[in-house]
Amino acid sequence: MMNNDKFYTDYRHVHLLYEHKKIVLYKMKYIEKNTNADVSAIIDRYNSVMKKIELAKVFYLKAIMSDNESELYDKLKNKSIISKIIKFLEDASNNEAGILQDFICNVKKTN
Fold it and tell me: In terms of Cα–Cα distance, which of 72, 55, 65 is closest to 21?
């Protein structure tokens, strides 16, 4: 929908997604530290999810800042950048649920 100018999002949305993933990663590390769960490989997988969202955030910020006519909270206009951002978000979204489910199952087994 972003590619068809029918969906309005701005930098804040992508930034909040990134902040959420960062907090979830922090909580996962906290749980690992305070339990006997061996979940470091799962945490590494989740870190890749966070990095994809971070890349989407950086691409968004770079695109909006390179457009001299736009302000930080304007809508993106560059279709190729929008496509890259969508790809990062879709990849992260497709992987996140399975990673979190693996994490929860491993922690439950330990306790």
Answer: 55
User: What number of H helices and E strands is found in the chain?
Assistant: 3, 0
Which DSSP category does 35 fall into?
A: S
pTM over 0.70: yes
Q: What is the pLDDT of residues 69-111, one digit of tens each?
A: 667 777 777 888 889 998 999 999 999 999 999 999 999 988 6
Determine the length of the chain. 111
pLDDT digits (tens, 9 = 90+) for 31-62: 999 998 999 999 999 999 999 999 999 998 88
Contact 89, 56 (CB under 8 A): yes
Whose CA is closest to 78, among 91, 62, 93?
A: 62
